[in-house]
Amino acid sequence: VNIVGGFVISQRMLALFRKAGTQDHSYLMLAPGVLLAVAPFANPALIPATGVASSLMCIGSIGALANMKTAQSGAFIGMSGVAGAVSAALAGMPPAALPHALGLLAAGGVGGIAIGSQ
What we know:
The protein is mainly α. It has helices at residues 2-16, 31-42, 47-64, 68-91, 98-116. The chain has one domain (27-116). The longest helix is centred in the last third of the chain and has 24 residues, at 68-91. The protein is globular, with a radius of gyration of 15 Å. The chain starts with a helix and ends with a helix.
């Protein structure tokens, strides 16, 4: 609930300050998140590296959120970092636990969207 809801609320707050007609390509910052989400499952030896890269992205996103010009990119960098960290954690779990963990993540994500969208 906290992860997804927090990002929903962050996007809503950033939308309040967005100027009409402004081109925004910060969604491209989600591309590293896709790579980080796939890497630990493609090669389990990449779990530690994915964790480090995800941590650095999360820390960098906090710095980017401090300035309105970079805040939108910072939010997407943070999403990518969190996606990588969650994937690294899931890749290290026993396969029998994955359906339960994914179910709980999905339920929490739906709850976060519902609460964050109010």
